[in-house]
Amino acid sequence: MTLNLQALETSFDVVAPRGDELMDVFYARLFAAAPAVKPLFAGTDLKKQKTMLLGTLVLLRKSLRDLDAIVPKLRELGARHVAYGAQPEHYPVVGEVLIASMAEIAGEAWRPEYERAWGEAFAIVAGAMIEGAESADLKAAA
Predict the structure, then answer these.
(1) Which residues lie closer than 8 Å to 68 by C-beta, 6 or more apart?
(2) pLDDT < 70: residue spans in the chain
(3) Cβ distance 132 to 78 under 8 Å?
């Protein structure tokens, strides 16, 4: 799959200056769309969590032209998320909510090609994280 790098970079650069607001919108939308995930954050410093997610998105933006280099980090992240209670079925919801949050923040600057591009990119990210989670599950079972 060839990613639309121009659309990914341009759209992220539109929302990045409002990163804090993006994180607020994302978590509000996530908890509204999937209330069952809210308990996964019960013992979490949400402000720190927002900072970490935004940092991961910035790293992803910087790594778009060489995604293979970041895949091992994404697998590690997925493996860590097993301990937090993340399930494979959570990933599509997170992706949809993240893209909708980006669209909300971008407003009229958001384009349909941005949504498509982020959907494709998130599929790669989620796939790598789920691989990492499955690997962690196998190690735990052994």
Answers:
(1) none
(2) 1, 137-142
(3) yes
